Amino acid sequence: MKETLLIKHAVGGRTFIDTGKQPREYRVESDGASFKFTVKAPMDRSMEELLEWKQELNVFLFQEFDDRPTKKIWFYVNDGSVHYNAEREQLTIVAQSSIEYVPDLFGGSM
């Protein structure tokens, strides 16, 4: 399975992090009630802008398989759930819920 992490601005759709285009070390953990994303990311202009818009982020995981359609998981991020540790160059996002879907299943025929 190939997995891609996307972190986008919810309103403008601007992509801040796309591990498919720019690989970054990241980890996803769940305690059953929430999901914690930890991303290795240096402080650069893109990170500054992400932090400016931290109240309006969408987080996605795209999981691509050889034998079935791509699964997308959209994570809901509440206010106060985004933090950056400059010393560690580490972004942390906590999502409270998620929605899984397979885009191929939402097609229609006319």
- Strands across the major sheet, in which order? 2-1-5-6-7-4-3
Residue runs with pLDDT of under 50 for 5 or more positions = none
CA(first)-CA(last) distance: 33 Å
* Radius of gyration computed on alpha carbons: 15 Å
**Mean of residue pLDDT values:** 92
**Number of discrete domains:** 1
The percent range for strand residues is: over 45%
What's the short version?
The chain has 110 residues and is mainly beta. The chain has 1 helix and 7 strands, in the order ββββαβββ.
What does this protein look like?
This protein is mainly beta and 110 residues long. It has one domain (2-103): Roll (Pnp Oxidase, Chain A). Helix content is 7%, strand content 53%. It has one helix at residues 45-52, and strands at 2-9, 15-18, 26-30, 35-40, 57-64, 71-85, 90-101. It has a 7-stranded antiparallel beta sheet with strand order 2-1-5-6-7-4-3, covered by helices on one side. The longest helix has 8 residues, at 45-52. This is Phage tail protein. It comes from Paenibacillus allorhizosphaerae.
Write the layout of secondary structure elements.
Blueprint: E1 2-9, E2 15-18, E3 26-30, E4 35-40, H1 45-52, E5 57-64, E6 71-85, E7 90-101
Antiparallel strand pairs: 1-2, 1-5, 3-4, 4-7, 5-6, 6-7
How would you describe this structure in keywords?
110 residues, mainly beta, Pnp Oxidase, Chain A, seven-stranded antiparallel beta sheet, 53% strand, globular
